[in-house]
Amino acid sequence: MADNVIEARGLLKTYGSQRAVDAIDLDIQRGEIFGLLGPNGAGKTTTILMMLGLTEISGGTVQVLGFNPVREPLEVKRRVGYLPDAVGFYDHLTAHENLAYTARLLAIPRSQSGRRIMEALESVKLADVAGKRVATFSRGMRQRLGIAEIVMKQAEVAILDEPTSGLDPHATFELLEMIRGLKRAGVAVLLSSHLLDRVQSVCDRVALFNKGKIALMGTVVQLANQVLGAGHPFLVEAQGADIAGALRGIEGVQTVVPEGEGGWRVMADRDVRAAAAQRIVSVGGSLTRLADLQPSLEEVYTRYFQEARHAA
Ligand SMILES: Nc1ncnc2c1ncn2[C@@H]1O[C@H](COP(=O)(O)OP(=O)(O)OP(=O)(O)O)[C@@H](O)[C@H]1O
């Protein structure tokens, strides 16, 4: 399966006559962070549960690291780390004891488990509370312990269901940093979320779910091009000349719209920022800011669902 760690083809889950997951095709590549996005009930969790062999598949196929999660659930569980929405640790045990328990279930040799547990706890900054009972942990600490379990396991794939929900901004920032750490260690990460700005900051690619189907899939820029139209928007702040006139004269520039005090939002059919900087200087202007305007996933998502509602 080339460099794909997960491959789904026509993957289907029905509940009675309802298609919770409607024949999706999905490839997750080694070492990427992939986001499953979509409103409540769109089918994200059901897709994850099928990949883990935790719910029956109604049709199609899914392979995880070359294994069939229905027929070979233990092979999948051994190699895949899973962080569910509510992480299930034993409250009366310490962080260290919880990981030691998992290590025993995974049959990690005792000669290795002590070191692997401490390294994993250090990697998520929980080493100093290793001896504290999990009952005393905040949600952020429990999520980090979940990541530590994935690190200790040396999983090749991590599947995280709404990992940052219920976390404050600082705890979210820390957790996302740890998710990036998993990627740096070569782990493929699949995460579901409805918190779009946070997903945008960490995901290489995303799939937008709608009513059990994948409506859009690709990088944030690709999705923005599909939904909002192609183009390179950027922001210019400059004074001292006819800046708008200078910008409009550049080949490829489509629109120049004033934005704020001494600012313009420029849309071009290609990246013309270097030409814009030269032109402003050559007409005697003084350039104070030239910023790429990354499309926001929030805009893509909102526009997509507005259009989907109109079409319905
Ligand atoms: N055990 C079940 N029995 C019947 N219907 C179910 C079951 N589990 C999920 N569904 C339905 O399948 C659809 C997809 O649910 P799923 O939980 O996968 O969505 P989701 O995108 O993960 O949403 P959320 O963000 O709310 O978890 C929903 O309509 C849901 O009601």
From TrEMBL:
A Gene Ontology molecular function term of the record: ATP hydrolysis activity
Residue span, ABC transporter domain: 6-236
Gene3D superfamilies registered for this protein in UniProt: P-loop containing nucleotide triphosphate hydrolases
Entry-linked InterPro entries: AAA+_ATPase (IPR003593), ABC_transporter-like_ATP-bd (IPR003439), P-loop_NTPase (IPR027417)
Keyword Chaperone: no
Similarity annotation: Belongs to the ABC transporter superfamily.
Protein name: ABC transporter ATP-binding protein
Organism: Reyranella soli
